[in-house]
Structure formats: C-alpha cells, structure tokens
Specification:
Blueprint: H1 26-30, E1 38-40, H2 43-52, E2 56-61, H3 66-76, H4 79-88, E3 90-95, H5 100-114, E4 121-125, E5 131-135, H6 149-162, H7 164-182, H8 195-209, H9 227-242, H10 246-265, E6 279-280, E7 288-289, E8 292-293, H11 294-311, H12 314-330, E9 341-342, E10 345-346, E11 356-357, H13 365-372, H14 376-382, H15 415-421, H16 426-444, E12 452-453, E13 456-457, H17 458-474, H18 494-510, E14 512-513, E15 518-519, E16 522-523, H19 534-549, H20 554-571, H21 604-616, H22 621-637, H23 639-644, H24 650-660, E17 665-670, H25 676-685, E18 693-698, H26 703-712, H27 714-723, E19 730-735, E20 738-739, H28 746-754
Parallel strand pairs: 1-3, 2-3, 17-18
Antiparallel strand pairs: 2-4, 4-5, 6-7, 8-9, 9-12, 10-11, 13-16, 14-15, 17-19, 19-20
Pfam family, one: Thioredox_DsbH
Protein name: Spermatogenesis-associated protein 20-like TRX domain-containing protein
Domain Spermatogenesis-associated protein 20-like TRX: 17-178
C-alpha cells in the first residue's frame, strides 16, 4: 500500500493566499499561494466578472502536468503578471481531472479554432462564459516572433474595451456551431449491413500503414501508448484467424508483440519501480515525459494480459504484474482507493525549491557504480548507462541537453545475448539484474518524491479494477515455478482480485448515493462537487462486469445493471441515440457532447457499446433486446466516423463488430463456491483470448445467487438447477441457442473453448 506524506499548503507562512486554499484538488492547492487572485469554477467567479464587467481568464490543467508547472513559475508566480490579471480579469483555475466537462467545452473550442490543444489550456471568456480566444502554454514575454502572455493580456483587454460586441458574438457563434456538430443524431436505427466489418478492416489497415517496423508503435514521435490501438489489432487478428487468414492474423499480432516488447524495454517503462510513464518524446520509446497516469496503467496491464493469453509467453504476464505491483506499492490508499497520478517533476535533493523533469528516475554513471559495486558494469551495459549520459539515441531524445550526463534506463540487447557475453547462466543473470534494481529502488526511495495526486477518479478506478480482476485468473495460466524478479513481487494472483474488490467497495461507499443511484466523479477529503460523467458510469460498469465474470459475487453484477439503468436515464439521447458526456444539469457547462474519440482513454460511448453487448448476454430477452437496441442506435450516430476515420475510433470499431456477431459465446459454470475446483474451472474459462465470450457462474445452493438469476434470467437459473452436481463443477459452452454437453475438468473446458 502507498505510504506518502500528505502534501500541505499550511506548513509555512505565505505572502499570498487566494480562494483556492479552501479547495480539495491538488492542482488547485498548488496555486493557492500565487499572487493571482484565483477563483475556483463557480457562480462566485461568474458574478464577480459580471459585476466588474470584465472578461474571465480560465486556466485549465492538472497537478502532474509539466508545462502547467512551467507556466505557473513563469507567469502566475510573477507579481507583474498577477497585477495585469487581477486588474483586468477575473481569473479561474480548473483541474481538468476534477471537471472534465468544463475542460471538454473549451478544449474543443481551442482545437476547432487553432487546430491543436493541450495543457495548460488558457482561454478568455465573456462573463456569460462564451469563449473569446484561447491557446495553451504562453511564455511570459514575446519570443521568436510570438506574443508572450503579458502581450496577450494587453491585447485581450484592448479588444474587450474597443470591440466587445464582435468578440462576444463570435464566441456565441462558435459555441452554437460546436453544439450542433457535437450532438449529432442517428439517421437510421442501426448501422447498415457490412459497416462494422468494413470499419474494423479499415482501422486495422490504417494502423498498419502507420506502424513503425523498427521500434514498434503506430505513428511517429512523440509516441503515446494508446492501448485501444493494440486492442483493435488483437481483435482484428483473431477475426482473421477465425476466417482462415492466418498470414494476416500473424502479421497483426506481430505488430502488437513488437510494440509491447519495445515499450517494455524502453525508458517509457520504469525498470526500477514498475509501471509506465506517460509517453516517449522520441521514436524509440527511450526518453519519456515522466508523469505516470492511472488510466495508462490499467489499460496497459490489460493488453499485456491479452497478449499473454494468446502467446503464453511469461514475458507478457510479467509485464502485467510489473504494472499492477507498481500500483499496489505506490498508488493505493488506506481504504483500497486507487490514486490518480504521479508527477513528472521533482526536486533533485532535499531543500531544492525548483523541481526538474525526471529527477527522481534518472541516474549518473557514478551513482550506479557507487550503489551496485561489483555488478555495476554488467548493469550499465545491460541498460546502456554511460558517463556522458545516454539520451543520444535520437535527435528528439534531449534536444536542449537537459539530461547531459544523466541516464534513462533502456534495454537494447536481449537478455540471453547479454548473459552469454558475461558468461553467466540466464537465470543467474536475471537474479543479478533484479538484485541491482532492488538496490537502486532503495536508494531512489530516499530522493525527494514526485508529487502524488491522491485524487480518486471513478472512471480511472474502473479501468484499474478491470485489470486487477482479469489478472487474478488469467495469470493462473503461468507455468508452475515461474520465477519473477524485482520490481515484480511474484504474488499469488488471487491477491489482485482483492485489490479490485476493495477499490469497487471504496467507490460504492464514498462516491455512490444509494438513494438517488448516482455517482460522484471524484474523491479527495470527501466527494467532489462534480457529478459522475459518462466515462465514470461506463468504465466502472466495465470493471464491475469483470469483477463478476472473473469470480466475484453477483452483487457486483447487480450493481452494474443498476448503474447502466441510471446511465441511460442521465446521458442517453432518447431521440437521437448515443450518450452525452454530461447529465446536462449544470448551466455553466455550455456544451453537451457525444464523445467518440478513442485516445489515451477510450470514449465513454465505445465502452458503453461493449457493456451493452455484455449485459445483453446476461439478462433475459426483453431487457437484452433493449440493451442491443440502445447499442445499435448509438453506433448509428457515429456511422460517418466509422466509415471515414476509423483510426480515430479503434475501440468503437471493435464494439461495432462485437454487436454484429450473430451469437455471443456463453460459458456457464455450475458448482459449489468457493472451492479450488471452481477457481480452476474459472481460470480455464478465461485462459484463451476472446472478446466475444461471456462467463456466467452460479452456485444453486447460494440463495442470493439463485434468487438473482431467477429474477434476471430464468434460463440460467434452470440450467444451473439441471446441471448441479454436489461433488464437482461443470461447465457448459452455449452458442446459437445450443449448449455443449457438460464438462467437468479444466483441460476439457480449455479444449472446448479453443475450437
């Protein structure tokens, strides 16, 4: 469990304190002592802008954002800049992770107007919140022919005074246009025949065209781990294999394998502490942007699990453990909640007031020698550590020489080749590397830590719950006696299920209102003011379905069904189809968007289609038909996107194909729980990769389970009653309204499912 000293803003006296000091968000608290007179997002700020008749300056970022820190130091801590902001504007700070709905409105505006976006997001608004102009990071002074922040402030002030009407009219028009474009409706009740299959094929082809055959990954630097791309290629590869196109299937799988291997060996992977950094600035996955985000860890653990279930190569199961063990060690709170992120920046030594990117993670050659002694040379050669520094593999790795003399660990040669070079058996070589990493970890732990954002976000916890739950059974496929090396703990995989269930329990207790059936979006020192958004419901439902399917109580499945009902009530466009991103109850949020882009995180609509397909295979026919209808209408909303720019929506392409599959495979396990036999059969049910499979398990002697299924799906209840045997666990595989004869041992079940 994570043990971090809580950050406080009251440990010393400050020259300035603003309204952000009363907030809970770590990002807002970071700005609580700026000379800028910041307000949090809310009516107090809007009323003040109306009273003073001045524009609003809106600054959006998050606590682990490097360029947000830079702009704070350069501009928001500067008395001169603060005076301009305080005299001419009402300044509002927003944490994008706490208010993704507000961020979405103004990020969409900046992207539409200027063709790009990012954080910090800097937008000027009228007092009625219409955007006037915007951008991202601004340096304080004019540079390279571009205006600095002070110049921007003066120009906006002049424009407000001299041509306010034109500005406001332009902002209103922009919001109207965006609203129309982003709340599109379905023209049909479902996608035309063939569209799902064509979209899946098109997306796979577009990704293959962008594949980097040298270093893996799709696209060029900077390289982001976008797990939805890997999911698409794995799904498409399996479809090709099923239709006899084995060469195409192998080619797609090979792209995924090379990508995940290059990422694991690269500096984007934290070799000493586990987990992955946000992205690589170069094409070879070497020098990362060092922040670590929970949404990356959850998704990456899942795709490494998927590739393990296909290849049975322990390299991939070890990588999923590496990520999950990092989360267990550093990112889990005292009540099972999973925190959001760790910063890229930290002080180089205690007492330093200025933080540097990557300071916690990088090493000099001398440091490695001093810590590792006799094994230093072996370790340095394995991880390409050099006295001059190693950030030289690409001209993009370190263009400003920030890491001169410093090393970001990267594996450039195979372990077997290196072991042979040093004349050491491979297992002994791996032992030495693990011991070295442990020593460096212990030394690193004494360095000033990067800031931990200990906010708990429902959607990101949903992604992590899924990976912990799936790992608990999929990792049972590892060979007996498999060895693991630090930072992998080699824990019993069932412990991962306990982590998943505790995280779900925390959300249920702290971020769910049982009277209203609603979620809140996030938690830090109490629930946030922001309501749950579409992603919170969709990602959590997905995690709860995995909790149930991987062996936990029907309690979690029942909650998933309740949450889906509430999601439909709050977000579903009953007329036009698809889900909006917000409940639409906050008048200060000017856009309700139907999000489709599967980026660093999947879109709530893509995940919702998969949830609906999964739920439809669990419930009785009338409810099942309703789920499928909502999924069909949703996909019809995004018909043009699927046809024209499939690469932007890889998970939606998979979801569309899943819905089009004529009959989803159901695996029904019947037997006494808990028992070792039941766990073994459950592991067998999940041993192979198959996104078009639902696993149902029932103990007819359990009154709660029997009652649930009698109410939810009588066929399952009857099947359990007719196939129950007191002394064994039996499995039936059902598809196309036909079930296989029952089998009662794991190998037979695995064989049945591999056909």
């Amino acid at each position: 469990m994570a043990e971090h000293t809580p950050e406080t803003t009251s440990s010393k006296t400050h020259k300035h304190t603003n309204r952000l000091a009363a907030e809970h968000s770590p990002y807002l608290l970071q700005h609580a002592h700026n000379p800028v007179d910041w307000y949090p997002w809310g009516e107090e700020a809007f009323a003040e802008a109306r009273r003073k008749d001045v524009p609003i300056f809106l600054s959006i970022g998050y606590s682990t954002c490097h360029w947000c820190h830079v702009m704070e130091v350069e501009s928001f801590e500067c008395e001169e800049v603060a005076k301009l902001l305080n005299d001419w504007f009402v300044s509002i700070k927003v944490d994008r992770e706490e208010r993704p709905d507000v961020d979405k409105v103004y990020m969409t505006y900046v992207q539409a107007l200027y063709g790009g976006g990012g954080w910090p997001l800097s937008v000027f608004l009228s007092p009625d919140l219409k955007p006037l102009m915007g951008g991202t990071y601004f340096p304080p002074d004019d540079k390279y022919g571009r205006p600095g922040f002070k110049t921007i402030l003066r120009k906006v002030k002049e424009a407000w005074d001299s041509k306010r009407d034109v500005l406001v009219q332009s902002g209103s028009f922009a919001i109207e246009q965006l609203s129309e474009a982003l709340s599109t409706s379905a023209r049909l009740d479902k996608l035309p025949d063939g569209v799902p299959q064509k979209a899946l094929k098109l997306c796979a082809e577009q990704l293959a065209d962008s594949y980097d055959s040298k270093y893996g990954g799709f696209g060029s630097a900077p390289k982001f781990p976008r797990p939805v791309e890997v999911q698409l290629m794995l799904y498409h590869s399996k479809k090709l294999k099923e239709t006899g196109k084995s060469d195409g299937a192998k080619e797609g799988l090979s792209m995924v394998i090379i990508t995940l291997e290059c990422m694991a060996r690269g500096g984007i992977h934290d070799h000493v502490g586990g987990g992955f950094h946000r992205y690589s600035v170069d094409e070879c996955w070497h020098v990362p942007h060092f922040e670590k985000m929970l949404y990356d860890q959850g998704q990456l653990a899942n795709v490494y699990l998927d590739v393990f279930s296909i290849t049975k190569d322990v390299f991939y199961s070890t990588m999923s453990r590496d990520i999950l063990d990092y989360l267990r060690r550093e990112m889990i709170g005292p009540n099972g909640e999973i925190f959001s992120a760790e910063d890229a920046d930290s002080a180089e030594s205690e007492g330093d007031t200025r933080k540097k990117e990557g300071a916690f993670y990088i090493w000099t050659s001398r440091e490695v020698e001093d810590v590792l002694g006799e094994h230093a040379n072996l370790f340095k050669e394995h991880y390409y550590v050099k006295p001059s520094g190693n950030c030289d593999l690409s001209r993009m790795s370190d263009p400003h020489n920030e890491f001169k003399g410093k090393n970001v660990l990267i594996e450039r040669n195979s372990t077997s080749a290196m072991a042979s070079k040093f004349g050491v058996p491979v297992e002994k070589y791996l032992d030495i590397l693990g011991m070295c990493r442990q020593k460096l970890f212990d030394v690193r732990s004494k360095r000033p830590r990067p800031h931990l954002d200990d906010k708990v976000i429902v959607s990101w916890n949903g992604l992590a719950i899924s990976s912990f739950a799936r790992a608990s059974k999929i990792l049972k496929g590892e060979p007996e006696g498999a060895k693991f090396y630090f930072p992998v703990a080699g824990t019993n995989s069932e412990e991962y299920m306990e982590v998943a269930e505790k995280a779900a329990s925390f959300i249920r207790k702290n971020l769910y209102n049982q009277q209203t059936g609603r979620l809140q979006h996030s938690f830090r020192n109490g629930p946030s003011k922001a309501p749950g958004f579409l992603d919170d419901y969709a990602f959590l439902i997905s995690g709860l379905l995995d909790l149930y399917e991987l062996g936990r109580s029907v309690f979690w499945l029942a909650w998933a069904i309740e949450l889906q009902h509430k999601q439909d009530e709050l977000f579903l466009d009953k007329e036009g189809g698809g889900y909006f991103n917000t409940p639409g109850e906050d008048p200060s949020v000017l856009l309700r968007v139907k999000e489709d882009h599967d980026g660093a995180e999947p879109s709530g609509n893509s995940v919702s289609v998969i949830n609906l397909v999964r739920l439809a295979s669990l419930v009785s026919s009338s409810k099942s038909d309703n789920y499928r209808h909502n999924a069909e209408r949703l996909l019809a909303v995004f018909e043009k996107r699927l046809k024209d720019t499939a690469m932007a929506v890889p998970l939606m392409c998979c979801a569309a194909d899943m819905l089009a599959v004529p009959s989803r495979k159901q695996v029904v396990l019947v037997g006494r729980k808990p028992s070792a036999e039941f766990d073994s059969m459950l592991a067998a049910a999940h041993a192979s990769y198959d996104s078009n499979r639902t696993v149902i398990h029932i103990d007819p002697n359990d009154d709660e389970e029997r009652g649930f299924w009698e109410e939810t799906n009588e066929n399952i209840a009857l099947m359990a009653k007719n196939n129950f045997a007191a002394d064994k666990v039996v499995a039936l595989v059902c598809q196309n309204f036909t079930c296989s004869p029952p089998v009662d041992n794991p190998k037979s079940l695995e064989s049945l499912l591999s056909k």
